[in-house]
Structure formats: structure tokens, C-alpha cells
């Protein structure tokens, strides 16, 4: 296991951005920036042993700063949407920035994706770990409480990339952290031929601004049914109100209960390359998003990313949970610890 550290440029504010590359003996490597905890590159082998970069990203800091697609970034303090940016905690009203139509999205105007995180590295014969830390001050983007956050990325010799999220607060607040990596297991082109399975019998329907109605709906008999593997493109253009208003999939699936806290929630295969990815998480939901609003976005090696060129599996709490009494609570109180883990495992079909 090795860790390489190299300059990646500077932000528009003159802050230094560093890229950390974690590599295992099989040649699998992941590059992460201290800017927003961005997964900038992830290289894995296909069935013929050829390596390709399977995440969308940028080659320079300016391109990251000038896009709003959250490519590969950590999202918070609250990932996903909060209706009209409204919070009520312990009877007190808080107004957050509304940066997505009428709603608050992924932490606001200057979310964690745009912050510089401090970094530490550790390595052994079996794993390489990058630990990022950010102290989010009371009142940042309207949120109450000083939040001390630690996110670690760990690549091991089994081609598992484990992301652990840890946070504590000095005032009751809400926390919902995730990573917004866009995957394309083929390495280029659109993602419609990928086969996806979601271990979820229900999903969260939303209104036209992607806010939940407050109920969960069975996926049975709908285009949202991924309980058995199917092509992303199979039903994505169905005459279905949920798909039409989102221009594709952009919904939260409620992960089926399992025997352990770390539950498998998704499996993806790409038939042409034979690549396979599985996802396990301790979170209650996974937001499956098919890059519906990517439009001529500057990418790596001169590429331009367009609609459905990548998909996201954002493990997280359910959207707008602070305003949805029937959803699991996202409140974090002083003395409590926010602690969630997601594991991405990379391999090959039938391997």
C-alpha cells in the first residue's frame, strides 16, 4: 500500500489544494483532494486487466470551483434537500440558504464541498488511509452549533474503499453527510447500460422540487423497482411522473433492514468491461441519481460531461428529514456522536 501526495493547484482564494493518491498491490488507486474531500480519480481493472478511471471529475481546481454538480465531493452539513431551508430545533427556527430553487441543497451556498480540509495519512501492509477534518462554525450557512467533522477514506488490499463519517457538536443541530461521486464503470460514455440492483423495497416519492410528500411507496410494479438487477436505461424514459419531473432517477431508496448495521444496499455491473461494484452502508437510505442535469461540464482529459454520463449512489439519511416526522431523525445533540460508514467494493463479474 502506498500514499502519494502532490500539489493540485490553488483555489480562487489562494488556498493550496493537495491531491492524495492511495494505491494497493493490485494497482487499484483512488485520488482524493483536500478541497471538499473530492474523489478526483478512481482507477480499477476491467476483465482484461486494463485500468480506467471510473469516476467523473476535473483536472484543475478552477473547473471544480466553476461547476455545481458536486463531482466526487463531500456534502454537508445536510446532504440532499431541506424544504425552503427551514429548520426548527428545540422550538427555535433557523433559516438556511435556499440554493436549489425554493430549497436548501447539500449544505448551502458554501457547503463542505468548497472547504479546505486538514489532512493526515496512515499506511500499513494491508491498507492506506486519508483522514480529513473540518471544523464547521456555529452559524455557518445558518446551521446551529460548532460541528467538528472527521471523514476518513481507507483503501485496503481487498479493493474496498471505506468512507467513515464522524462528527460531534456543542449545540443541537442536524447532520447528514455523504459523498457525491459519479461513477461510470465503463470509464466513458453514458451509464444507461449499467445493470443496477438496489436492496430496497420502498422509495421516497417527491414533488416537483424534489421534496418528499412524507410517505414511502412500494417499488413493486413501478419503474423504481431495482430489487432485481436491471439496466439503468430500461425504464428511465417511462411515462411516470416521478421520472418526468426529475428527468430520470433522483430519488431516495429506503434500504431494507439487515442482520447487521452495515447493510448491502446496491450492486452495479457493467457488461462490456466486466467491472462490478457493491455498496454497503450503515445509513438508512441511498440516493440514486443518474446525472440528469449534467450539461457540457468540463471533465478530465478534455472530456465534456453530459446528461447520464455517470450515476451516484449517495448513502445518507432521507431528504428533508428535519421536516418529516416519520423519517429517522437527523438531529445530533451535544455528547452524542454521528458515526456512519459506507464501503464501496470493486471487482469483476463472477469474481
From TrEMBL:
<comment type="pathway">
    <text>Carbohydrate metabolism; hexose metabolism.</text>
</comment>
<dbReference type="InterPro" id="IPR008183">
    <property type="entry name" value="Aldose_1/G6P_1-epimerase"/>
</dbReference>
<protein>
    <recommendedName>
        <fullName>Aldose 1-epimerase</fullName>
        <ecNumber>5.1.3.3</ecNumber>
    </recommendedName>
</protein>
<dbReference type="InterPro" id="IPR018052">
    <property type="entry name" value="Ald1_epimerase_CS"/>
</dbReference>
<dbReference type="InterPro" id="IPR014718">
    <property type="entry name" value="GH-type_carb-bd"/>
</dbReference>
<dbReference type="InterPro" id="IPR011013">
    <property type="entry name" value="Gal_mutarotase_sf_dom"/>
</dbReference>
<keyword id="KW-0413">Isomerase</keyword>
<dbReference type="InterPro" id="IPR047215">
    <property type="entry name" value="Galactose_mutarotase-like"/>
</dbReference>
<dbReference type="Pfam" id="PF01263">
    <property type="entry name" value="Aldose_epim"/>
</dbReference>
<comment type="similarity">
    <text>Belongs to the aldose epimerase family.</text>
</comment>
<keyword id="KW-0119">Carbohydrate metabolism</keyword>
<dbReference type="InterPro" id="IPR015443">
    <property type="entry name" value="Aldose_1-epimerase"/>
</dbReference>
